[in-house]
Design a protein that fits this description.
Length: 518
């Protein structure tokens, strides 16, 4: 296990030192280019619509919360004008008190566990002491055995990795007691370990210090401590079947799916827990009228923040209620940059999708970052095998030239993934007035959401199903053979997605114009 961690750390440092970057930090807004750095064509689209006045379009960000104080977002927020701020009264009688900027269905939850852990815990309580001869539902019992095997393996891995990174963390602390925080590569090379903790820290630091002429201890510590944070979560929360914050932090009856009015109005939950949602919101609609920061795709959008995703897997009841809240409060698009491999109650989500469809609301969902084929493995939520025509599933494309035109982490699927969009090195807003570039289908999904909102702002009479058709069918073909994400094998994008195309804003506008005249 220790050897594996060191190999991971060495690879991590190599990538950090030698990673490539796009020549333009806003490459995702650039024109389509089959040779690389292929964006959505924002400037051409703006020129096409220069003589028209857009209508405001509300985009709900169902995520981990949005920094409503960020200078690039505070002017772009949806506000509930029928509600009076902080008076403790449900002024508009929609069932949610003081929901000025949206709603938080997580209450005070920060960490939650993973869905496989919840499912294992439920079934383990039922079957732990039973033998096969004692059970009446053989199918459920078999599922329990499968979940148990996977869960226990993941729990043990998390424990071993956490213990190692905890040693590394303590080793850093001991080294700093000796040298301070300005530790040089020479001091690292010459240091004689006095404990297993220092030895663990040096096993990480020494390769980096030797290979990097510009070695910086604090930068290295900061990046590698992300490993500690990750395994602290997976061991103490994610794969911890004894951890269940729901009753204390939310206070609802989780098994009662008819219950919708729980949580609170706090839609921003600090830098640690709302970074993801803030980044997603900025991709859609960061203020581009100022001379700093990020550039959102749709300047006629307003962002509704719905806190749905904790540090852990989202819960199906919260997903369903987030969709319903967005629909009932005027959102035309809901971006959902989250997903999981297991589900608790797919039916409650199905009914929410159906409700959104009936109200002409478009749902846009990230395909996931496991480099896997969604046709062959579960990724929730989804559109239940094309049952709904208001759902778009988005994979991530890269700024690089073929054969690296598709993001190496992106999920894909000839049946399950509709279209690709830029999702690597996407620069956007992060909490506390900051900006960063993130990777993920989580970034590709709001690129599509922003594109959809831009089109809908100028063609508001389109139905959600028509807008989906436009975005998908107007996508521009990703030509040539690219590596299948997560593999070395190459193929054409049309063989691992429905369209094999990238979303393109000018092409979508041209199709929308044509459709509006028919």
């Amino acid at each position: 296990m220790k050897k594996n961690i060191l190999l991971f750390a060495g690879l991590f440092m190599t990538l950090r030192i030698f990673a490539q970057n796009p020549s333009n930090k806003f490459w995702h807004l650039e024109p389509f280019n089959k040779k690389g750095q292929s964006g959505i064509g924002l400037e051409e689209a703006k020129a096409m619509m220069s003589s028209r006045t857009p209508k405001t379009t509300i985009v709900a960000i169902a995520d981990a919360g949005v920094d409503i104080y960020h200078p690039d977002l505070k002017t772009m927020l949806w506000t509930n004008n029928d509600e009076i701020l902080n008076n403790g009264i449900d002024d508009d009688e929609n069932g949610y008190v003081d929901d000025i900027y949206g709603w938080n269905f997580l209450g005070e939850t920060t960490f939650d566990n993973l869905e496989i852990t919840r499912q294992y815990a439920l079934l383990n309580e039922k079957y732990e002491l039973k033998s096969p001869a004692d059970v009446s539902d053989n199918e459920e019992y078999t599922r329990y055995q499968d979940l148990k095997e996977i869960y226990l393996k993941k729990n043990m891995e998390a424990k071993l990795y956490f213990e190692f990174f905890d040693q590394v963390k303590r080793g850093f602390e001991f080294l700093e007691e000796t040298y301070g925080t300005d530790i040089t590569s020479e001091e690292i090379s010459n240091h004689k370990s006095k404990s297993k903790y220092e030895q663990a820290a040096l096993s990480i630091l020494t390769p980096s210090a030797k290979s990097n002429k510009n070695f910086n201890y604090l930068d290295t510590k900061s990046e590698l401590m992300s490993g500690y944070d990750h395994y602290n979560f997976t061991y103490n929360y994610g794969y911890n079947a004894k951890f269940d914050p729901r009753s204390e932090k939310v206070g609802d009856n989780y098994d009662d799916v008819s219950e919708t009015q729980y949580g609170n109005s706090k839609v921003y939950y600090g830098e640690k827990f709302s970074s993801h949602g803030t980044h997603v919101a900025g991709i859609v609609a960061a203020d581009a009228s100022n001379d700093f920061g990020a550039k959102g795709i749709c300047q006629s959008c307003r962002i509704m923040s719905i806190r749905t995703v904790p540090e852990g897997d989202e819960r199906d009841k919260d997903v369903a209620n987030s969709i319903r809240y967005a629909v009932d409060n005027g959102a035309r698009i809901v971006n959902m940059s989250f997903g999981k491999s297991y589900a608790h109650n797919t039916e409650v989500v199905r009914e929410a999708i159906r409700y959104a469809e009936s109200k002409n609301v478009l749902l846009i969902h990230a395909a996931g970052n496991d480099g896997k084929n969604n046709d062959l493995s579960n990724n929730y939520p989804n559109d239940f095998n094309d049952e709904f025509d208001n759902w778009i599933e988005v994979g991530a494309s890269s700024w690089m030239k073929k054969p690296k035109g598709l993001a190496e982490f992106s999920n894909y699927g000839l049946k399950e993934v509709d279209v690709f969009a830029p999702g690597v090195d996407i620069y956007s807003t992060t909490p506390e007035n900051q900006y960063e570039a993130y990777d993920g289908t989580s970034m590709a999904s709001p690129v599509v959401a922003g594109t959809a909102a831009f089109v809908w702002s100028y063609y508001p009479r389109l139905k959600a199903s028509e807008l989906k058709k436009i975005l998908v069918e107007s996508s521009l073909e990703i030509k040539g053979r690219n590596r299948i994400p997560g593999a070395r094998k190459k193929t054409r994008a049309c063989k691992i997605s429905k369209t094999g195309g990238e979303v393109n804003l000018p092409a979508a506008l041209r199709m929308a114009e044509k459709m509006s005249k028919e």
